[in-house]
Amino acid sequence: MGLLVRPARPEDLEVLVSFWSDMSSDPAVSGLIYPPTEENKRKWRSWVLKVMEEDERQVIVTELDSRVVDFILFRVREGPLWSPHRIAVIHDLYVEPGSRRKGVASRLVEKALSVMKSRGATLVLVTALVSNRPALAFYRRMGFREYRLTFAMELEP
Q1: Which of 3, 72, 81, 128 is at a distance of 20 to 30 A from 21, taking alpha carbons?
Q2: Poorest-confidence range of 23-32, 33-42, 66-75, 89-98?
Q3: Domain count, the chain
Q4: Range of the domain at 7
Q5: What is the CATH number of the domain that holds 77?
Q6: What is the 3-state secondary structure (H, E, C) of the chain?
Q7: Residue 152: predicted pLDDT
């Protein structure tokens, strides 16, 4: 089994858009906040390219037998206010269904954490829906703890 964790390349973009579309279509994962419309796919693709231009190491993929099976997208950012922390935010993490529970996501997140640390990050934030129990369990296993609770309320139009 050939496993390679590496920065994403522009030629990976269509696979990543497909992964994002899968994530966005799953109500337990996304809450259907950003549906995978063609316009949203185009905007997400453009945003990913921007993040890659900032630092190619902020979008990382795993290749399994020369095929991309997952990705993580994060940013290390400077906040508008002083903080004792330099904050990194994981925006997206996806593993294709056939590659789940095989350790590829753990390796991917470990690589991302290493990059974050090398860029000076001292606090990493990630958000997952409470309905996404597999993600919650995964992040806990990786050493993350509950830090903030976000409430949501839909308003009638």
Answers
A1: 3
A2: 23-32
A3: 1
A4: 3-141
A5: 3.40.630.30
A6: CCEEEEECCHHHHHHHHHHHHHHHHCHHHHCCCCCCCHHHHHHHHHHHHHHHHHCHHHEEEEEECCEEEEEEEEEEECCCCCCCCCEEEEEEEEECHHHCCCCHHHHHHHHHHHHHHHCCCCEEEECCCCCCHHHHHHHHHCCCCCCCCCCCCCCCC
A7: 87
Q: Which residues pair with 87 in a beta bridge?
A: 77, 123
Residue type, 66: S
* Assessment of whether the complete model's pTM goes beyond 0.70: yes
- Categorize the per-residue pLDDT at 1 as very low, low, confident or very high, splitting at 50, 70 and 90: low
Type of residue found at 152 = A
